[in-house]
Amino acid sequence: MKKEYLSLDTVEGSLIQLSGLHHVSYGEIVSITNAATKEELVGRVIGIDEDAATVQVFGESMGVSTENLRVVFEGKPFEIPLSPDILGRTFNGIGRAIDKGGPVYADRFYNVNGSPMNPVAREYPRNYVQTGIRAIDSVMTLIRGQKLPIFSGSGLPHNELAAQIVKQANIVGEDAEFSVVFCGMGLKREVAAYFIDSFMEAGVMDKVVIYMNYADDPIMERIIAPKCALTAAEYLAFEQHRHVLVIMTDMTSYGESLREVSSQRQEVPSRKGYPGYLYSDLAAIYERAGMIKGVDGSVTLIPILTMPSDDITHPIPDLTGYITEGQIVLSRELNGQGIYPPVDILNSLSRLMKDGIGEKYTRKDHADVSAQLFASYSRCIEIRALAQIIGEEELSENDQKIMEFGRRFENEFIGQDYNESSTIEETLDAAWGLLRILPRESLVRIDPKILNEYL
């Protein structure tokens, strides 16, 4: 039997405190009614101390006081309805439809906290997701079931890159349906409109599910939005047997929301004021990506985060790097040269790439070509530093060829048009075209048999 409480202890922003409670559970959903305005709100229990509880309110808390609220504990966790009809739909941070399609009617409601994936039941990620972006597909290949973040900075084109990945990403050579779940957290309305317009113009909206939290929406919704998005992704992957790519932007906004709530709760802060549980909170989100043995479907995750002051040691990118399997770093220097996408090859990597490329998946020369591109570009950066001291005209003939390779690699290989999509074969063929600039004896990272066949 549900119990209704009419008196609160305190109201602090979006947090309310109640005492004298019976049988209340952590994470339990709460229905809140403003007696003055008749407005109905939703909350969630985020703290319990004996017979007292702290409730987090999703929604605007203006006009709320200790005397005008009616609070009912529902005895269940936060749940959202899911069905195949969610494809092509747009929802807010708590899973309510904000497009003109009306509410989602479903037979089942799903707990947004998900079901923990048994590590023994996890299938090792194999096979790749083709993004159509040469820099990513060649040197830091995205593997199905992987979590591969994009580390960006203010003013860099991470939004354009995310939209391009959504438009172009696909699973090559498989019959399974491919879908995208897009989660925006704290986005400006013009940025959110850009994403939606881009998906519509590309004709991919029917395979995309959008969970959107705007910058002027309550921060409490920002905290639950990624959990709603991942719950939808797990439903599409493990019940509808689709391969699902989840893109989340911006995880920095999510972390700042956690910090604000933690401050309201007067918790002891950790690095830069973030709560001490930031690592476990991020891990609870990122680790929901993956595949399950014996179940068709997969969840691949690309979280995007903007590094404050381009500081890769900031707590959010730092902890994200520990949890995920690599990173794609965007370069402010390449962006200043007008190169799009400005992917920093030398600071980016995909730790699972070696197991999802090669003859069975992409092409037998892929691993060798990737290693040679990385080594040759790294050598180019060293020679550029030398050229600044002695002058480029004083360089040896081989070093000048490496300099030419570096220039063309940045402009012709890394750089590509926003609407340009390359298959993995086109990407590797373009790489061989650049490697032919270099002397054969310098191609030491490539097996001689492969070198004879492709060079």
Brief summary:
By secondary structure, the chain is α/β, with parallel strands linked by helices. It has helices at 134-139, 158-168, 189-202, 219-238, 251-264, 278-286, 315-323, 332-336, 366-390, 397-414, 424-435, 448-454; strands at residues 4-5, 10-12, 15-18, 28-34, 40-49, 52-58, 69-77, 79-81, 90-91, 109-111, 150-152, 178-187, 208-214, 243-249, 298-306, 326-329, 349-350.
Explain the overall architecture.
There is one protein chain. The chain has 455 residues and is an alpha/beta fold. The protein has three domains: 3-73, Elongation Factor Tu (Ef-tu), domain 3, CATH 2.40.30.20; 79-355, 3-Layer(aba) Sandwich (Rossmann fold), CATH 3.40.50.12240; 365-454, no CATH class. 33% of the residues lie in helices and 20% in strands. The chain contains twelve helices and 17 strands. The strands form three sheets. The chain has an eight-stranded mixed sheet with strand order 9-13-12-14-15-11-16-17, sandwiched between helices. Strand 2 (10-12) and strand 3 (15-18) form a beta hairpin. Helix 4 crosses helix 5 (251-264). The protein is elongated and about 85 Å long. The mean pLDDT is 90.
Strand content: 15-25%
Q: Give the helix/strand class.
A: alpha/beta
CATH architecture of the largest domain: 3-Layer(aba) Sandwich
Low-confidence stretches: none
Order of helices and strands: EEEEEEEEEEHEHEHEHEHHEHEHEHHHH
Protein traits:
3 domains; single chain; 8-stranded mixed β-sheet; elongated; alpha/beta; Rossmann fold; 455 residues; Elongation Factor Tu (Ef-tu), domain 3; 20% strand
